[in-house]
Amino acid sequence: MSDVTLSSASDAVIPQDLSEVRDWVTLLKPRVISLVVLTGLVGMLVAPGRLPPALAIATVLCIALGAGAAGAINMWYDRDIDARMKRTAARPIPAGRIEPGAALAYGVALAAASVIILGLATNWVAAGVLALSIGFYVFVYTMWLKRRTSQNIVIGGAAGAFPPVIGWAAVTGGVTLEPLLLFAIIFFWTPPHFWALSLFAHADYERVGVPMLPVTHGARETRRQVLLYTLLLLPLTLTPVLLGFAGWVYAAVAALLGIVFLGHALAVWRDRQDAAGRSLTGDAPARKAFRYSLSYLGLLFIALAVDRVLLG
């Protein structure tokens, strides 16, 4: 989700060396990393026990580098379709600013470094989960599922759900039910989040032959699935409370955020459509749902961390 709206005028005033640095940072998908780091950090904060500050910082950096490495390899592999999609045509590889081979080497080096450093700094369980998340995103989602099935984002979404498990394992040396609940929340959040995006970017996906749900099943079915997964997600976000893993602060915030999310999903579902399932009122509901979903996940995890700090 790199920023493709920067004007050529802004590029002209940026020194060449800084512009090149920006391109290498863009390869890491920094907007995605921000959520990955947040959920991984919360996984650390809510785990029983504490890491020394230096090791905690190292863990967060390794999670960020691992996610960025996967993003760089994804951009390398998808450079052919990125060049033909309006949303991604300005990315560094299709725009010709970074060579594909260099981008691949960059991603592989960062992936290896993140796993090795995390293993040495904390434990090899956390490093193993980090390696699994990188491999899942690269091999299962990017190379296998994305161009083959409309369920790509459902199954592939697991890749983005690993960070709280990594954070938890870094502190405890193991994986228990609690981080798996956080994994499940992100897993079920991913389809309504990404399908909202695909509703207003479906022309791009159709142009390059990527079988996103709006392309294969139409907008109407996609809107129905956004609502369905939102309905599945909301009670799931309350299971930490039912299992005693979170308290009333988290419960109140999760309920409020969930009601707003449901309102966005209902607006997407009710969007007027023609017989072919195309929207007649534009993409405003889908765009609003997509933007809110980003805030939703971040605020939900922040609420969990605050709850544990306040209530223990």
Describe the secondary structure blueprint for this structure:
Layout: H1 8-12, H2 16-26, H3 30-46, H4 53-77, H5 79-82, H6 100-121, H7 124-145, H8 152-156, H9 163-172, H10 177-200, H11 202-208, H12 213-237, H13 239-242, H14 248-270, H15 284-311
Word description of this protein:
The chain is an all-alpha fold and 312 residues long. The protein has two domains: 14-174, UbiA prenyltransferase (Tetracycline Repressor, domain 2, Orthogonal Bundle), CATH 1.10.357.140; 176-312. Helices cover 74% and strands 0% of the residues. It is built from 15 helices and no strands. Helix 3 runs parallel beside helix 9 (163-172). The longest helix has 28 residues, at 284-311. The model is unreliable at 1-15 (pLDDT under 50).
Rg is 20 Å
- CATH topology description of the largest domain: Tetracycline Repressor, domain 2
Write the CATH architecture name of the largest domain: Orthogonal Bundle
Shape: globular
State the end-to-end distance: 36 Å
Show unreliable segments.
1-15
Estimated structural class: mainly alpha
Instruction: Summarize the amount of helix as a percent range.
Output: over 70%
Strand content: under 5%
Sheet bearing the most strands, described?
none
The tally of helices reads 15
DSSP summary, beta strand count: 0
Task: Write down the secondary-structure element order.
Answer: HHHHHHHHHHHHHHH
Output the CATH class name of the largest domain.
Mainly Alpha
- Mean pLDDT equals 90
**How many structural units, i.e. domains?**
2
The CATH superfamily of the largest domain bears the name UbiA prenyltransferase
